[in-house]
Design a protein that fits this description.
The complex is a heterodimer of chains A (97) and B (491). Chain A has 97 residues and is mostly helical. Chain A has helices spanning 2-19, 43-55, 66-69, 72-96. Classes of the chains: A mainly alpha (97), B alpha/beta (491).
Chain lengths: 97, 491
């Protein structure tokens, strides 16, 4: 499990550094994107698209919250929870077959 | 917080300012994101008979230092998370003598540099404990300056619009009248207080005694919608970018039936968005408005006219007169294009210490001492006096509802090593209205990348000024006089 979170976190970090920090690397995983001026109001929408496209998840409108998106670790945690949710559903469906 | 709480805290900070010899007519800069302390600081500055200036919290060091030196600020209220930047700032801004930091642990900052500079940096929390909550005596009158609001200018340097108490109260009284604000209103403000549209949400709420819910922005729409539902929000001021984001969301998940009105300004809403917003909020009234910092607000479209004239920004706000002039100064006929001129007690005093620019924009009015505002915006007016925006006379870009000076962005681009020349234009963008696009000619062999350009911009500019697109080219198109032709790049 831990390796998966790590992997997701690294992918998110890479994306943030490349697209929002334009290559500079001074952000901690727990730093708030908003407070550090990393993303602005429309930047969050880009982040959302990235998460959907990269990890194949669907972000529910009600989930566009700071606790899910406002730092590298928050986003990694959120993506992990979403992916786990899908895994459980798949397992159950297969079991029923 | 109750009004009594804000009153007591603002009195305390006002008394602290006075005790530090910051008094009538001095400038107090507020460099904070939207938070209760920012509101307390505004009223404290006013109570101490000083002039406040609220600076966007994403402003970077160079511009912040420019603004503080431009208005020779003597006091600054900011946050402890900016402590190191403010330490550097104290060295650059000789006029500063008092700095209060929200979120600080407490105690006077005894760093040797500050002692050498004879400045004091104190914890705001401690000030709010130490000083008395008695209301300080009022020293100013209503034709004194209350605020300087910085706005982007075509020269690339921000200019400070000087606002008297009378100007601001005239503007807010007029707006309150047509929005029919009442003490029962609960207004949510996601707009920065450095932006006059955001600032007036505070002033108007305080004037009528309404409830104000202050948010740091609209970045997380679900968080704002949760808040709107929980607080039973009645008033929601926004700009087209915010409404475009809102319309991408399935709003049926939230109970927003408490909403009485929505307001839009800063740029026109696309007609399709007007329709979608009315469908999404059938019980709420939508106000399309137009204004500029130089007089706060010019016009609003009475909601009953939305169906007939969805593309109009309406008629003059109460207690305001508007007309359209051609280049020779003659009033034009209905349907003809000309510059919009505004007359009213909300027309501000001019630009701080910029007499030439002031004379160009604020011209003598009908009676001695009056000023007319020449907006620099081209409009038409129909037979019944309804206004239709045509375009700007200058190159100012409107992105995310905020004015961006191409020159200011270009000056930053020119400071990047390897850039020979650069220009920026506004290109249509569904979310931002206009997105900023930079054209850059770089030196051969430097290998400048888009990322380097964007990183440089993000380090020196407020977030809404950072280009969205960068294109490298061999040369920039020029006019016959050798100036860069932005027109041909936009085409």
């Amino acid at each position: 499990m831990a390796w998966k979170v790590m992997h997701i976190q690294e992918q998110i970090r890479y994306y943030i550094v490349e697209n929002f920090l334009f290559g500079s690397n001074g952000l901690d995983d727990k730093d708030s994107f908003l407070e550090h001026g990393v993303v602005d109001s429309t930047g969050v929408l880009e982040l959302l698209l990235f998460a959907e496209e990269t990890f194949g998840i669907t972000v529910d409108d009600q989930e566009i919250l700071p606790e899910n998106f406002d730092s590298i670790s928050n986003l990694a945690g959120y993506v992990t929870r979403k992916l786990d949710c899908f895994c459980e559903m798949d397992t159950r469906t297969l079991g029923e077959l | 917080m109750t009004y009594a709480d804000v009153e007591a805290l603002a009195n305390k900070l006002a008394n602290a300012l006075i005790a530090h010899d910051v008094g009538r007519g001095d400038r107090v800069a507020i460099y904070l994101p939207n938070c209760a302390e920012a509101v307390v600081a505004i009223f404290a500055a006013l109570k101490a008979s000083t002039i406040f200036t609220s600076i966007n919290s994403t402003t970077k060091f160079d511009k912040l230092s420019y603004i503080l030196n431009d208005c020779r600020a003597t006091a600054l209220v900011s946050h402890a998370s900016r402590r190191s930047m403010i330490g550097r700032l104290c060295a650059e801004v000789p006029s500063l003598k008092f700095v209060a930091l929200a979120g600080a642990e407490g105690g006077e900052d005894d760093s040797t540099e500050l002692i050498e500079l004879e400045r004091s940096m104190v914890s705001l929390a401690e000030v709010l404990q130490e000083f008395p909550s008695d209301r300080p005596p009022r020293m100013c009158i209503d034709i004194d300056l209350a605020a300087i609001i910085y706005t982007s200018g075509s020269t690339g340097r921000p200019k400070g619009v000087m606002c008297t108490h009378l100007n601001m109260i005239s503007a807010s009284t007029s707006i309150i009248q047509y929005l029919e604000n009442v003490p029962e209103d609960i207004i949510i403000n996601v707009l920065p207080l450095s932006f006059d549209y955001g600032l007036y949400q505070v002033l108007m709420a305080f004037q009528v005694g309404a409830t104000l819910v202050l948010e740091r922005g609209f970045a997380y729409p679900a968080a704002i919608l949760n808040r709107m539902e929980a607080e039973r929000i009645t008033g929601f001021p926004g700009v087209p970018t915010i409404f475009a984001m809102l319309l991408q969301i399935d709003l049926s998940r939230w109970d927003l039936t408490s909403l009485r009105y929505l307001t839009n300004t800063a740029a026109a809403l696309p007609v399709t968005h007007v329709q979608q917003l009315r469908e999404a909020f059938p019980q709420a009234t939508l106000y399309s408005m137009y204004g500029l910092t130089e007089c706060k607000r010019v016009s609003y479209l009475p909601p009953g006219e939305l169906d007939r004239r969805p593309g109009s920004v309406g008629v003059a706000i109460p207690n305001t007169e508007v007309w359209i002039e051609d280049e020779q100064g003659h009033r034009v006929e209905p349907g003809e294009v000309g510059e919009l001129v505004v007359r009213g007690s909300h027309v501000m005093q001019g630009y701080w210490e910029l007499p030439e620019e002031t004379a160009r924009t604020f011209r003598p009015g009908r009676y001695p001492g009056q000023r007319l505002l020449y907006t620099g915006d081209l409009f038409t007016m129909d037979e019944e006096g309804f206004l239709y925006f045509v375009s700007r006379k200058d190159d100012i870009i409107k992105s995310r509802g905020e004015k961006v000076s191409p020159k200011e962005v270009e000056d930053v681009l020119h400071r990047l090593e390897g850039v020979i020349e650069a220009t920026v234009v506004g290109v249509p963008d569904p979310l931002l209205g206009q997105a900023i696009k930079a054209y850059v000619v770089s030196k051969d062999g430097v290998g400048l990348t888009e990322k380097q350009v964007l990183r440089h911009c993000a380090t020196h500019l407020e977030d809404f000024m950072v280009p969205k697109h960068v294109e490298f080219c061999d040369s920039l198109p020029k006019t016959s006089s050798g100036k860069i032709s932005r027109m041909s790049l936009r085409a």
